[in-house]
Amino acid sequence: MASTQRPILCQKITAMLQGKSFSIGDRLPGERRLAEMFKTSRNTVREALCNLESMGYLEIREKSGCYLKNKEGCISWEMLRKRKSIEASRQLVETLYLVVPGLVRTETLRLSPADITELETATSRLGEAIVNFDLSMISRVYISFFRSLAEVSNNGYLILLLKELELAAKNLEHAGTGLSEVQIDSLFAYHVELFNALKTGQPEQAEKLAKYCLQTFSQMVLPDS
Amino acid sequence: MASTQRPILCQKITAMLQGKSFSIGDRLPGERRLAEMFKTSRNTVREALCNLESMGYLEIREKSGCYLKNKEGCISWEMLRKRKSIEASRQLVETLYLVVPGLVRTETLRLSPADITELETATSRLGEAIVNFDLSMISRVYISFFRSLAEVSNNGYLILLLKELELAAKNLEHAGTGLSEVQIDSLFAYHVELFNALKTGQPEQAEKLAKYCLQTFSQMVLPDS
């Protein structure tokens, strides 16, 4: 659960950054120093900095620190595509969790033979990426499968959202268990089962398998999940 | 269920449009003529044209016809913001259905007192829009409530997605029941109940109310829903 002090701390930090002593590109004081300055915990500081990154004020460079990016704060798709933090990976996975199971459920019964062929191709591309043992490529190909589904849905918002996630996946920092044999086997096995559920028109089964797939994916790219 | 001929028809139409006899801005033959040309039903033609609009090839102008927009087909957030068709409204509502209930469920227990205040302000803005009897404003304010929730989630993708939906809502064509007294009363009543469930930290209740809210919203803006 997020700290209740977080939004207030965000306001205090942005007020500080908007003052004359900070210029774009400046490095912020470290977490420990900020916690002292604002009489709060380092955890609260870390949460607030993540918020401010999402709002476009800061850039968090892993192992380096936080840098002032924009005094007004803004956020654009362009910016999201370039992020490289674990926090960015977490948001990507969270968004997939929110969108994919419902998308799978609603599209299962709308698939034409041509759509099935398209999804079959996407599934074999995933197989190739797995053989090449390339985690960044696996992530992209994996998301592109669901982008193909979004294209079936004919919903412009979902098509573009999945496309953005696919572009962002290129830069993912992977901090999860990575590519152990077991992970790969279960990711691909669930994925093939998902494809079969889609092909044979079983919406509930497809939705359930999509959730399993996402869990395995999440374990690969995120720590402690 | 979508016609299985649709994807094939889409390919045939794009092949036709990419030929030399069509230039950007040209009006396509009418639905009846296209159905004759490709030996298919008008329903299939209509579905295919909707697909091609989403893919950026066409612009559908209600009561006027379809116009060639881009021979390569592309789709951008910018383009989605400017659409005015009932199909665009349908996609907007569908996306809200897919994203909002889950967002409400996960954020309920993460709300700080400052977040609650922000959502309370958004709720009273909705009340004002209702008093002004302005359907376009109601749609925008309504979506902005969920954008505020996305900001709590600190998830850049969801923040921007909801922002895009909010921008698109400005242009919504409303073809639903519109603003009858009963509609307005139930929209606002459900919304206040949703706010209370969020405030008192009841995730399941909040998720259920969010679905009711969306149903009422959908009836206002879409035909036959």
CATH class of the largest domain in chain A: Mainly Alpha
Total domain count of chain A: 2
Largest sheet of chain A: 2 strands, antiparallel
What fraction, in percent, of the residue positions of chain A are helical?
55-70%
Q: Considering residues with a beta carbon less than 8 A from a beta carbon on another chain, report the largest interface and each chain's count.
A: A-B, 49 and 49 residues
Unreliable sequence segments of chain A: none
What is the count of DSSP helices of chain A, taking H or I runs of 4+ residues? 10
User: What structural category do the secondary elements of chain A indicate?
Assistant: mainly alpha
The strand count of chain A comes to 2
The strand line-up of the biggest sheet of chain A is 1-2
| Large-scale geometry of chain A | elongated
* Radius of gyration computed on alpha carbons of chain A: 20 Å
Taken in chain order, the helices and strands of chain A follow as: HHHEEHHHHHHH
Oligomer: homodimer
Which CATH architecture of the largest domain in chain A would you pick? Answer: Up-down Bundle
| Percent strand of chain A | under 5%
Explain this structure:
The structure is a homodimer of 225-residue chains. The mean pLDDT of chain A is 87. Chain A folds into two domains: 63 residues, Winged helix-like DNA-binding domain superfamily/Winged helix DNA-binding domain (Arc Repressor Mutant, subunit A), CATH 1.10.10; 144 residues, Four Helix Bundle (Hemerythrin (Met), subunit A) (Up-down Bundle), CATH 1.20.120. Chain A contains ten helices and two strands; from the N terminus they run αααββααααααα. Chain A starts with 5 loop residues before the first helix and ends with a helix. The first copy, chain A, has a two-stranded antiparallel ribbon with strand order 1-2. Chain A is mainly α and 225 residues long.
